[in-house]
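G., the chain you wanted modeled:
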Amino acid sequence: MKTPTQYKQIDYQERETIALGIETGLGMRAIARMLGRPASAISREIERNSGGSGYSCRYAQQRCERRRRQGRPAPKLIAGNALFEATTALLRQHWSPQQIASHLAKLHPTEAAKRVSHETIYNVIYAQPRGELRKELVACLRMARAKRWPRSKGEDRRGQIADLLSIHVRPPEIEDRQFPGHWEGDLIKGALNVSAVGTLVERTTRLLMLVKLPHPHPASAAHVLQAFTDKLIGIALPMRKTLTYDRGREMAYHRELTAATGMAVYFCDPHSPWQRGTNENTNGLVRQYLPKGTDLSGYTQEQLDAIADEMNNRPRQTLGWASPLEVYGQWLAKLEQPDALIQ
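Predicted structure as tokens:
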């Protein structure tokens, strides 16, 4: 059975050993034993890379590198060629690399030389030498970062939450919005991330609750547990079934929240805000009242309730132009608990 060394390509240090062995009169088998390689590999190396004056380690290395360069296909995107110019023209129109790649594949389905993958476009942009062209191309991207983020971001750097329930084991009726009582939660941050307000949105009715968090350290797990518990236990029991949250460390006490409210807590995948799409969309609407960059610690719970009431009384297209409060009330009536409105 061949060892990994026997499969490994001969490097410059081994070529020095081969040259020294030939100079001292050693045979191929003796040189092969010194390097732990088959004699056929040494014979092939000498035959391929010898020059007119015999075998030289430096000359052999140069021949090897030349063959490697010539054996690689020429890059598709090189500054100045037609494909590069077509790609950069679309980038300057603020097309994303994915859109460009799909567009070129649609235009040239049978001509591989005239299309390119979005990963290649990203690589070429960030491989440009520092200068105006690189700066311009990076600025064309929607997320104009100075460096490319890795495609796999790895584990969540905020730390792991113990005993979490993944969103992938959440019952399917929650995804289908067949029945109310399933909530999504999040925090919106104020200026410099030193203040925050909790948001809770019911998936079926789109009803919103805003939660006042203590100051300072509003996003601590203990503060979020207490504030969310106080708000959620005011909901009628049939409308209090599950909560879906992201991987934020503020939900580290999710087991205590379940014990206090009876609501199972499910967690989204890392970096996947679309798995709480209702909450994310509602957070954008809340920002009309609580703009980014403002200090949220000065809002009282009464003021936050007034904002939530105003939003809950606005008609929503997704509800057939009914308001969230109307739909929520209808579901309460069906459950024969007309006195169980949100406190």
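The two ends are 75 Å apart (CA to CA).

Shout if anything looks off.
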